[in-house]
Structures are given as C-alpha cells and as structure tokens.
Amino acid sequence: VQEEKIFAGKVLKLHVCTMEGAEWLEEVPEDTTVEKLKERCLKHCVPASLEDPKTVTHHKLIHATSEKVLTDTKTVLEENIQDRDVLLLIKKRAPPPLPKMADVSAEEKRKQEQKAPDKDAILKATANLPSRNVDRTVAHHNMRDFQTELRKILVSLIEVAQKLLALNPDAVELFKKANAMLDEDEEDRVDEIALRQLTEMGFPESRAVKALRLNHMSVTQAMEWLIEHADDPTVDAPLPGQTPSEATAEASASSAEATAGPSSEAGGEEAKDELTEIFKKIRRKREFRPDPRAVIALMEMGFDEKEVVDALRVNNNQQNAACEWLLGDRKPSPEDLDKGIDTNSPLFQAILENPVVQLGLTNPKTLLAFEDMLENPLNSTQWMNDPETGPVMLQISRIFQTLNRT
C-alpha cells in the first residue's frame, strides 16, 4: 500500500443532476472546494462553456436533501456533504434588466398623477365655485349641543323620577329588585370574545370580568389593569354596588322601612332618608373613570391633570375630542354636565306629558338607566333595546327630534 493513499482524504461518490435531466457520478476528495466541484460538473455536462470565465459564477450547486445552496469557497467536508448525497447543478437566474430612463420618467409621472392634491391645489381648483357657507366647526358644535341638551334632559328626569319614587312606600324594595336586574344585565353585557381573550392569557375568569367592567370592555386596558393589580390583595373584591357592606346597608334600609309605619310622619322621613342614601350609592356606582392612557397622552402635551380629567369627562373618554375641547372654547364646562333643562321649556313639558314616559319614571330601573347613560353614553344603545327602558328612551328621542325640527 502506497503511503500517499493511506493519508489521503476520504473520497466521496456524489450523484449530480441537471435541470435538463442529465445524471452522473462524481468522485471527489472531501477537501475539494465547491467551486472546483462545480468546474468538474460543468466540464462533464457543458465542456465548451468553460471558455467563458463567468460560466462557473453563473451556476450553483444545491444539496437536494437540505435544499441548501453550497458556498463556492467552502470544502465538501465543511458543507457536511456525505457519501452518495444528491447534488443539483442549475444556472442562476439572470438579474432583471435595469429600467430605461424613459420608463422611470413614465413611472414617476404616473405616481405624481395618482398623488392626492395638496391644499394649494385644492384652493386653486375650487376658487371659482360658489360658497355654500358650510362651517364644519358650527356643525361640530351643533352635534355637541345636541349631546349636551340630551344630557340636561336626563339630569332633570332623574330629579323627577327620584321625587316620584320617594312617594312609593315600596321604593326601597323596588330598588333592591331593580339593582338585581341591573346587575344581571351587566352579567349579560360582558363581551364574551374579550373575556375569552383574557382567560386564554391565563387570567382567572372572575378577575377578567371585573377588569372588563372597570375598563368599558376594552381588552387592552383590562389586561393592563390585571397586570397592575396582580399583587393587590383586594383584586378579587366585588365591584362597588356588590360589596357585603352595601348589601347590609340595603337590608337595613329595608328593615327600617318595615318597622316604620306608613302613617307615621317620622317613619316617612326615615324612609326618605334611606332613599336619599340609595340615590347617593347609585351615583357613586356610576363614578367617572378617566382612561389612564388618554390622561398620560394629554398631560404630555402640557395640560394640567385636572383639566385633562375634566376634558375626558365632558367628552366621554374620547382623547381626540378632549384635546379639541382643551384647545377650544371648553364648552360645555364640567359644571354644565350636572345642570338640568329648563323645566318650563316646551321640550321638557312635552316629555313629561307623554304617558309612556310618565309610566317609565315610576320604574326604578328607568332611574338606574338614566344614571348609567349620564356616565356611560355608549350604553344608550343597550338601554334602547331593553324591554322596560327602551320605550321610554324612544319617546324622549322622538319628542326631542320633533320639537327641534319645528
């Protein structure tokens, strides 16, 4: 045995194929570079083509099993090619031709034609058009005035409903039933898709429900709340209105009413006080909660925190509208939100004279609906679809629209 054969590298037998269907075996030492192997393959299948030095660079070898393009400068061993492996020799795709200057100019011209006109171009093109005197700012304020007027109606109707319900000897018991119905409705209003997203993240269902209710069914805000309160020992405490202390207070209110005789003037005053406390609890249950992200974003613009909270309260947590309010005339003011409508106005008189509204004002659930819509205007649609409060809201809306058209 010759010495050079003992110490020579391992010889691999490789199966090479081309796209044209040619096949053959190449025997190469494992220290052969991929470039040398490629030259041998090209000599085998297209020997005349090697006269052009670019022929080698215009072809590539691909490892069939791994679909990897082999690097010219590496050896067969470095590319981890094994005996009997299959290689594919193919010609590289030619790069796309560079576009002609005429084509480039045409493309640029097409893009310019599709580009939206700027403000100067619009003014120039519309200079001769007759003015319609449409002021978008006025239209925006008209919409805002509509929302403000509707809110004033609700504030005044709440006062009327409270007075009517205070005359009912069974008012406390009715409120307990209405609150139970309201809580049941809130259970139904939990967004199932949002709840499933949070539970799939690993949050407990009861905690996820609480987070969604506190954040107006926003998954993002609810998730932030859950993360922020993960170590809070009171995170699983019931929401306001569902706490044992309030349940006890309501029970005591009911027992106080039961012990007080309806003919007793002192008992009537005591029941009235209990109702006042219930009204306060309802209002506390509907406290405004500003969107924390909107607060931070508006404060970063330089506004004071109290101004930002007022702006978000006036504009129902809508950041863009709140920003416009802060930069504008700031109408309506936060104080205007608690003002009612003129009780002597034709609009309010027409609402009170409607039989459906009169009947609805004696239902505690209507009062709870009004309170909810004051703090959460987005819930108006839900109350419109409620079989008890929907007819009342429909009549108020019709009367408002009719009188504003005349």
TrEMBL record:
Q: Where is this region: Disordered?
A: 98-117, 232-273
Gene that specifies this protein: Ubac1
**In terms of domain of life, where is this protein from?**
Eukaryota
Decide whether keyword Protein biosynthesis is in the record: no
Instruction: Pinpoint the UBA domain residues.
Output: 183-229, 289-329
Annotated GO biological processes are: protein ubiquitination
Give the pathway annotation.
Protein modification; protein ubiquitination
Q: What is the lineage of its organism?
A: Eukaryota, Metazoa, Chordata, Craniata, Vertebrata
Q: Which InterPro entries does the UniProt record give?
A: STI1_HS-bd, UBA, UBA-like_sf, UBA1_UBAC1, UBA2_UBAC1, UBAC1, Ubiquitin-like_domsf, UBL_UBAC1
Q: Where in the cell is it found?
A: Cytoplasm
Q: What is this protein called?
A: Ubiquitin-associated domain-containing protein 1
Gene3D superfamilies the record matches:
1.10.260.100, DNA helicase RuvA subunit, C-terminal domain, Phosphatidylinositol 3-kinase Catalytic Subunit, Chain A, domain 1
| Coiled coil, from the record | none
Give residue spans, biased composition: Low complexity.
243-266
Composition bias of kind Basic and acidic residues appears in: 106-117
Q: What Gene Ontology cellular component terms go with this record? A: cytoplasm; ubiquitin ligase complex
Q: Keywords, A to Z?
A: Cytoplasm, Repeat, Ubl conjugation pathway
Which Pfam family is one of those matched by this entry? UBA_7
